[in-house]
């Protein structure tokens, strides 16, 4: 009898949640056709994840370790050769991404907060894997982004497949940085794979602008993915209290922070900025109110879930779910779905396996696999 009542209450809760989300323009899906499996647990905070091959998942822990997960056995080992990181506040070892030509060059790219004079500077580096050790470590750029806060370091990596990479840096908790082109803070940067500046970057040749900057006016980019099929760069970033954004990033564009915002101050119901839109500043494609606090961004391209192809996924840290956004052919959002809410976990990083399964990490130190 108690089991029957418990099941009925659970389904009533699901039905009520579905009605509330539908009324808000969202949707909630049953998970009968999906299986969530625990792949690893007892980790630190797995901030970044990337597949090295079909059987090996590399991940970073924000405290400063790089792990290697054997997907066949579940065994985790940690790599030597990682430099010290500024693991304070939101800083630490951040993203990890094998190069598009990794099979030939062996390069693996990292972003992290590097300790510099007692502060953290978001840094891009690369190294090769030799046995259980990272070797040939190269710092490609130590960005001009330091502040006396421990907030808003960014920083995800994306490749365009044409010899360039992008990575984002937050405003470092100093709002005017978003509009200051003499600092890398509050920007998305574009570099060649060797760390040099492409000569077709939008601000090359201007003495008052750092040449690595591709776009600016960002608060704290937490997800970045390149859609090679449509030749476009997607970004998801934290707003303040309300106002998380999905943006299509174009060269030289100003995304408004902190002049333009959909959020409010943390200390009270006061709008941040002058308006939600202004001439000369690029509007977001989608705004989340209230904030979901995104931790990542993935463009799904696999075969395991055909209905998800071309959709954007992000992990939600505050509202604790897997967020799915459907798009039309022009990149306009057509719907939103909130998955895995019963997991009740801060979902940080996402990765797609060669089979098209979704892997997700949580701040509780677990890596999960979502498969048919």
Give a brief rundown of this model.
By secondary structure, the protein is mainly β.
List the topology elements.
Blueprint: H1 2-23, E1 35-40, E2 46-53, E3 56-61, E4 65-70, E5 76-78, E6 93-98, H2 102-105, E7 107-116, E8 119-130, E9 133-142, E10 157-159, E11 164-169, E12 187-192, E13 213-216, E14 221-227, E15 232-237, E16 244-249, E17 286-288, E18 298-299, E19 312-316, E20 321-327, E21 333-339, E22 347-352, E23 358-362, E24 366-371
Antiparallel strand pairs: 1-24, 2-3, 3-4, 4-5, 6-7, 7-8, 8-9, 10-11, 11-12, 12-13, 14-15, 15-16, 16-17, 18-19, 19-20, 20-21, 22-23, 23-24
What is the straight-line distance between the termini? Answer: 32 Å
Please work out how many helical segments DSSP would assign: 2
Give the overall silhouette.
globular
What is the alpha-carbon Rg in Å? Answer: 20 Å
Question: How does the major sheet shape up?
Answer: 4 strands, antiparallel
In percent, how helical is the residue content?
under 10%
Any low-confidence stretches, pLDDT <50, length ≥5? Answer: 1-30
Structural class: mainly beta
Mean pLDDT: 92
Taken as a percent bin, the fraction of beta residues is 35-45%
The total strand number stands at 24
**Helix and strand pattern:** HEEEEEEHEEEEEEEEEEEEEEEEEE
What oligomeric state is this? single chain
Spatial order of strands in the largest sheet: 1-24-23-22
């Amino acid at each position: 009898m108690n089991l029957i009542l418990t099941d009925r209450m659970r389904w009533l809760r699901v039905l009520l949640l579905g009605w509330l989300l539908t009324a808000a323009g969202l949707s909630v899906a049953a998970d009968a056709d999906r299986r969530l499996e625990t792949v690893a647990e007892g980790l630190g905070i797995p901030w970044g994840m990337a597949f090295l091959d079909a059987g090996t998942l590399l991940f970073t822990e924000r405290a400063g370790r790089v792990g290697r997960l054997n997907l066949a056995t579940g065994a985790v080992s940690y790599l030597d050769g990682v430099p010290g990181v500024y693991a304070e506040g939101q800083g630490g070892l951040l993203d990890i991404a094998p190069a598009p030509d990794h099979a030939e060059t062996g390069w693996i790219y990292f972003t992290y907060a590097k300790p510099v004079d007692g502060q953290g500077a978001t840094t891009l580096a690369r190294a090769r894997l030799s046995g259980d050790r990272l070797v040939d470590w190269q710092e490609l750029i130590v960005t001009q982004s330091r502040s006396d806060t421990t907030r808003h370091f960014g920083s995800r990596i994306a490749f365009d497949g044409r010899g360039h990479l992008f990575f984002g840096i937050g405003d470092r908790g100093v709002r005017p940085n978003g509009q200051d082109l003499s600092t890398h803070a509050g920007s998305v940067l574009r570099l060649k794979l060797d760390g040099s500046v492409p000569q077709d970057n939008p601000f090359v040749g201007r003495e008052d602008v750092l040449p690595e900057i591709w776009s600016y006016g960002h608060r704290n980019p937490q997800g970045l993915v390149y859609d090679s099929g449509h030749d476009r760069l997607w970004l998801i970033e934290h707003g303040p209290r309300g106002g998380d954004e999905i943006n299509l990033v174009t060269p030289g564009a100003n995304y408004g922070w902190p002049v333009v915002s959909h959020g409010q101050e943390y200390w009270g119901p006061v709008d941040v900025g002058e308006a939600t839109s202004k001439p000369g500043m690029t509007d977001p494609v989608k705004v989340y109110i209230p904030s979901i606090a995104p931790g990542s961004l993935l463009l799904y391209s696999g075969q395991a879930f055909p209905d998800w192809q071309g959709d954007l996924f992000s992990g939600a840290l505050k509202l604790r779910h897997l967020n799915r956004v459907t798009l039309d052919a022009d990149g306009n959002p057509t719907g939103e779905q909130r998955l895995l809410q019963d997991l009740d976990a801060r979902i940080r990083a996402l990765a797609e396996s060669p089979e098209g399964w979704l892997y997700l990490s949580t701040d509780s130190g677990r890596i999960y696999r979502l498969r048919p």
